[in-house]
Design goal:
about 40% helix, about 450 residues, seven-stranded mixed beta sheet, alpha/beta
Length: about 450
């Protein structure tokens, strides 16, 4: 069949628009989405990417999928715990419930019930942060980049900030530390070299126009070989001797020890970095997207009063979820059980193997799947040196079963199952799979594999 005949078999627009399944879509949106879907099919046909028109029901489903206003739930079988593209940290049930509780009603967000006057939205958060981290005060904004930007704007605008050249990192999406410092109105003063920065480098750079020393945790890469960096306690003493603050951008910001190679927020503060520490809420902390700032009370108050804070502050649902997450950290063992990313990162290897065996037993036998050891990652720019031993359901490449096709079919499932292909094998790493999703995975495999065991 030639291309013109293929294109002539496209359903008429009025037939599509009249389908009852699309009745909930507004007329203008429906016309726009239907046009986009049909244009996409025409383009792929002309390019030779498809040789037959999709079934009418498939076209309707494409329009319905394009109309979805919200994000889709996916099953993360990649083994990357903090998968940035998949929304990073799934929240604890207590955090989800806290967000729901304030979403559907009015709250005392900025109202003091005791006095009947305006209150502070940070009242509960500040107390929790002080209790858990040992800092004098704390606040939160909508992400960690915002936390650093706000801190620099409030404390360092128009003056120099000293930073090691080895810490001038890009944290993703072409978002670079030097640009954040510049946007915050501060003047960048680089010291040392890419691989070596000494205490004397910082000391020589201090002058009357120095506003702060900033240390950036290189959480998404590691320089190895001949390297040297200044210990945080040494930097703290240097900053104190010159009466300037030390700002530590910790990045991930773990509140419990999940790796021997990572320092917790509490440990950093105990080592002397108690002026200002910034870290994320949706990485190793396991809460909603947030940028948390803890430190000396006078500095935190100055940051809170800066006009930029209002533009960067968190909404009531995110604040409620963050407070609920932090409350779990008052009992460390409870936090490890109930905060999903902590549970994933701390699950014993033998439990992961047993989990993989339970999933394998639910899958159709004709798929040729086996259980093999693998390595998981923390992801999200956290713990770059750390791989976690795990187990995965693996399916080997074969002529009858192209892995790219299987991966695509699993990704097209509802809900989508996101896997990874490594060394000519498709892997479903059980570390990041919720056991409640096993039945949906088994159902997807049953649909995909026919009786001959082919995709």
């Amino acid at each position: 069949m030639d291309i013109n005949n293929i294109l002539r078999s496209l359903p008429k627009m009025d037939v599509i628009l009249g389908d009852s399944r699309l009745g909930l879509i507004g007329a203008k949106s429906l016309l726009r989405l239907a046009t986009q879907v049909l244009d996409d099919i025409r383009e792929k046909t002309l390019n030779g990417e498809i040789t037959e028109i999709p079934l009418f029901d498939d076209i309707i489903n494409k329009i319905l999928q394009a109309h979805k206003a919200s994000f889709s739930r996916v099953i993360n079988a990649t083994g990357v715990v903090l998968h940035t593209n998949l929304g990073r940290a799934p929240m604890a049930k207590a955090a989800v419930q806290a967000a729901l509780d304030v979403a559907e009603c009015y709250t005392d967000l900025e109202y003091d019930l005791a006095t009947g006057k305006r209150g502070s939205r940070l009242k509960g958060l500040d107390q929790l942060l002080c209790t858990i981290t040992g800092a004098e005060a704390g606040l939160a904004v909508n992400n960690n980049a915002a936390a650093v930007l706000l801190t620099l704007s409030a404390l360092c605008a128009g003056r120099e900030v000293i930073v090691s050249r080895g810490e001038l990192v890009e944290i993703g999406g072409a978002f670079r530390v030097p640009e954040v410092i510049s946007q915050g109105g501060a003047i960048l003063r680089e010291v040392g070299t890419t691989n070596c920065t000494r205490l004397s480098d910082y000391e020589k750079a201090i002058n009357p126009n120095t506003a702060a020393i900033i240390k950036i945790h290189t959480s998404n890469y590691k320089v190895v070989g001949y390297t040297q960096e200044v210990d945080i306690s040494e930097l703290s003493h240097l900053a104190m001797d010159h009466n300037i603050p030390l700002i530590y951008d910790l990045g991930g910001g773990s509140l419990v020890q999940v790796s021997n190679k990572e320092t917790t927020v509490q440990q950093v503060i105990g080592l002397g970095a108690d002026d200002i520490v910034c870290f994320s809420g949706d990485k190793l902390l396991g809460g909603p997207q947030a940028g948390i700032i803890v430190g000396k009370k006078n500095l935190i108050e100055k940051i809170r009063k800066h006009p930029l804070y209002r533009a960067l502050r968190m909404d009531k649902m995110s604040l409620a979820a963050l407070c609920a997450t932090l409350s779990l950290y008052e009992d460390e063992e409870k936090a490890k059980r109930e905060i999903p990313i902590l549970a994933m990162l701390t699950t014993p290897l033998e439990d992961l193997k047993a989990k993989a065996e339970r999933l394998l037993a639910m899958l159709p036998s004709e798929n040729g799947a086996t259980i093999e050891p693998c390595e998981s990652q923390a992801g999200g720019g956290s713990l770059p040196e750390e791989n976690f031993q795990s187990y995965a359901i693996t399916i080997e490449e074969s002529f009858a079963r192209p892995l790219f096709k299987l991966e695509k079919l699993l990704r097209d499932n509802k809900p989508p199952i996101i896997t990874r292909i490594y060394k000519e094998k498709l892997l479903l790493d059980v570390r990041t799979i919720n056991e409640a999703d096993f039945s949906e995975i088994a159902h997807a495999f049953a649909k995909i594999f026919n009786m001959e065991g082919k995709v």
